[in-house]
Write a structure and sequence with these properties.
By secondary structure, the chain is an alpha+beta fold. The chain contains 11 helices and 35 strands. The protein folds into 4 domains: 51 residues, no CATH class; 124 residues, Immunoglobulin-like; 186 residues, von Willebrand factor, type A domain (Rossmann fold), CATH 3.40.50.410; 229 residues, no CATH class. It starts with 11 loop residues before the first strand and ends in a 31-residue tail after the last helix. This is Inter-alpha-trypsin inhibitor heavy chain 5.
């Protein structure tokens, strides 16, 4: 985790004056590789504060719209009454439950002496640590950790029962201690599944929770994995003044839980009302907030009835741990001119022709978010349709991408000299790409919706896939050669090195896995990342994993692999076929296809991984090198053929061990002992005959295995062949 006191990350540029700040974060792939081998993927978080001259907050006005920022500080924290509700059903077994327990240990130590807490574990039974809230002491923290440590996964998932029990604990404590206005009651609820025990009907669970909480208990939910009923968790939080987060299967549930808790660990105010005179303000966004947490900010936007208004009356009422707070003031909101940027030049009022000013755009953004929340909470079909239409209309007017609008990515014009048609390659081709249009997504697309160009590429046999198994096709002699490379997890292999000529480099990073039972290997390795550097005509970087594609060339795009899309510019085209493959076409004369191998429930020895296939190598030079590249412009022949004059391998007898007779292969001046084998490619859809070179292809490839190890994912250096530069 980054230390925020150590300054901004490399490549960050900050320009600011007293009224304006401009922050640019645009690290090159090289800078990212220095931080982590796979680059930086995550949220870019800007932590900042502003000078606040008045306790009522900061109000800005421009062209009839206003925005009010309210973020009081130097207030004593409100006591928390918190119940941690942890799913301990059978599906939480293993890493998820262990990470969650470790995170709760950290969170318990963060509780303040004035806080009260309890812990509930639930499966098909509801297991309560204590039947009342406990004060925070060293002994109670220790006992709570022991209770969490002994939780074991078993049984089903009684979500309704767990929530009802947690709410009763909180309501009982508040009622008996008469501290409702001077504390905040929270439930932190974590699950990885759907309700399977007790009440399982979603609407009844929502109604039961809403009636029990009565707006006095805020529920913060975390859903882990792909099987969770995230819509239920989202509505539980929306209806009960909370927030929700989703943790994907491959993410660390513990760190996500700690980060979520950090957002709500310090409540400063409760029951906040912000009021403006109805005669002065219309169409204001939400003005009632159940809680205000340290580090957050309350933002309200609206329209002024009179653009020439000199002062706006504002009243804020709220409760904190000591007293009931009332703030009243008249804020001057005289006519304002367009601001100036850091360089001193006037800042435009909009983003372009017909665009609104930035305050109007913020108002539309907040209003759209509130409409979407209301749509999600509503159970009335007519009301939902009305809310959907309003949100869609507003989003289209201000060009926001929401679930009811979509975005169209234009593909390049089809080439007449396109690549060959593929037949029978369902695993390699995958489904057709989806086109999204910047129009209402609730209507049928109609005749104006055009499909983007999707090249139908015939994949050659030359490839590396699986554990990893290499295949090289020599079409002139009608020979196919195969070999294995037994690398180590974390090794980055040079697959194609043509940086000095065509400007193309392809590297692949290995990930490890245990060997299958009764196997001859101690471990397996697969490609988890394929990186492609294209240096001509302009530099572009591609990083491909089973879950996403990062294209960095001028602008940085992150494309999820579970959605089909085609993007392209400057002679580079990237086509993602959802959960099937990624096709990379360079200058129309080089094409690679990366197969995506996903497992719904992987065995211990399986990993999501990639296969790399060369579809078109015409644009690669005769100096091309790498584990695959060195063979692209070569030919091979058998100097000793035990099968006699015929080289039709389909007539060779297959031995029990899967290997046929031996021979000697002559390629690139090397004499290589080989043995005939059969090998499956294209995700197992096609079986090929090949001559297999043993011992990590020691006599087949130039040099040895260590000569093909790259220092980082975009390393272009090659100790063999002509390209020797290691510079990016």
């Amino acid at each position: 985790m980054r230390n925020y006191d150590s300054g901004p990350p490399p490549s960050t540029v900050i320009n600011q004056n007293e009224t304006f700040a401009n922050i640019i974060f645009k690290p090159s792939v090289v800078q990212q590789a220095k931080i982590a081998q796979n680059g930086v993927l995550g949220d870019f978080i800007i932590r900042y504060d502003v000078n606040r001259e008045q306790s009522i907050g900061d109000i800005q006005v421009l062209n009839g719209y206003f925005v009010h920022y309210f973020a009081p500080k130097d207030l004593p924290p409100l006591p928390k009454n918190v119940v941690f509700v942890l799913d301990s059903s059978a599906s939480m077994v293993g890493t998820k439950l262990r990470q969650t327990k470790d995170a709760l240990f950290t969170i318990l130590h963060d509780l303040r002496p004035q806080d009260r807490f309890s812990i509930i574990g639930f499966s098909n039974r509801i297991k309560v640590w204590k039947d009342h809230l406990i004060s925070v002491t060293p002994d109670s923290i220790r006992d709570g950790k022991v209770y969490i440590h002994h939780m074991s996964p078993t049984g089903g998932t009684d979500i309704n029962g767990a929530l009802q029990r947690a709410i009763r604990l909180l309501n009982k404590y508040v009622a008996h201690n008469d501290i409702g206005d001077r504390s905040v009651s929270l439930i932190i609820f974590l699950t990885d599944g759907k309700p399977t025990v007790g009440e399982t009907h979603t609407l009844k669970i929502l109604n039961n929770t809403r009636e029990a909480a009565r707006g006095q208990v805020c529920i913060f939910t975390i859903g882990i994995g792909n099987d969770v009923d995230f819509r239920l968790l989202e509505k539980l939080s929306l209806e009960n003044c909370g927030l929700t987060r989703r943790v994907h299967e491959e993410e660390d549930a513990g760190s996500q839980l700690i980060g979520f808790y950090d957002e709500i660990r310090t409540p400063l105010l409760s029951d906040i009302h912000i009021d403006y005179p109805p005669s002065s303000v219309v169409q204001a966004t939400k003005t009632l907030f159940p809680n205000y947490f340290n580090g957050s900010e309350i933002i309200i936007a609206g329209k002024l009835v009179d653009r020439k208004l000199d002062h706006l009356h504002v009243e804020v009422t709220a409760s904190n741990s000591k007293k009931f707070v009332i703030l009243k003031t008249d804020v001057p909101v005289g006519p304002q001119k367009a601001g100036k940027d850091v360089t001193g030049s006037p800042r435009p009022e909009g983003d372009g022709e017909g665009d609104p000013n930035h305050i109007e755009r913020l108002w539309s953004y907040l209003t759209t978010k509130e409409l979407l929340s209301s749509w999600l909470q509503s159970d009335d079909e007519l009301e939902k349709e009305r809310l959907r239409q309003r949100a869609q209309d507003l989003a289209l007017s201000y060009r926001f991408l929401i679930p009811f609008t979509s975005m169209k990515l234009r593909g390049p014009v089809p080439r007449k000299d396109g690549l060959e048609e593929a037949h029978g390659m369902s695993a390699a081709m995958g489904p057709e790409p989806v086109v999204q249009s910047v129009r209402g997504a609730g209507t049928q697309p109609g005749p104006l919706l055009e499909k983007p160009y999707q090249p139908r590429i015939k994949i050659s046999k030359t490839s590396v896939d699986g554990d990893p198994h290499f295949v090289v096709d020599f079409p002139l002699s009608k020979l196919t050669v195969c070999f294995n490379i037994d690398g180590q997890p974390g090794d980055i292999l040079r697959l194609v090195s043509d940086h000095m000529d065509s400007g193309v480099t392809v590297n692949g990073e290995l990930i490890g896995a245990p060997a299958p039972p009764n196997g001859h290997k101690k471990q397996r390795t697969y490609f988890r990342t394929i990186t492609i550097l294209v240096n001509k005509p302009e530099r572009s970087y591609l990083e491909i994993t089973p879950s996403r594609v990062i294209l960095d060339g001028g602008d940085r795009l992150v494309l999820p692999c579970n959605q089909s899309v085609v993007v392209g510019s400057r002679g580079l085209e990237v086509a993602v076929s959802a959960n099937a493959n990624v096709t990379v076409t360079i200058q129309g004369s080089i094409a690679f296809v990366i197969l995506i191998h996903l497992y719904k429930k992987p065995a211990p020895f399986q990993r999501h991984h990639l296969g790399f296939y060369i579809a078109n190598s015409k644009g690669l030079s005769s100096n091309c090198h790498g584990l695959l590249g060195q063979f692209l412009n070569q030919d091979a022949r058998l100097t000793e053929d035990p099968a006699g004059p015929s080289q039709n391998l389909t007539h060779l007898p297959l031995l029990q061990a899967g290997e046929g007779p031996e021979a000697v292969l002559k390629v690139k001046g090397h004499q290589v002992p080989v043995v005939w084998k059969q090998r499956k490619i294209y995700n197992g859809e096609e079986q090929i005959d090949c001559w297999f070179a043993r011992n990590n292809a020691a006599k087949l490839i130039d040099g040895e295995y260590k000569d093909y190890l790259a220092s980082h994912p975009f390393d272009t250096g090659m100790t063999l062949g002509r390209g020797t530069s290691r510079e990016l």
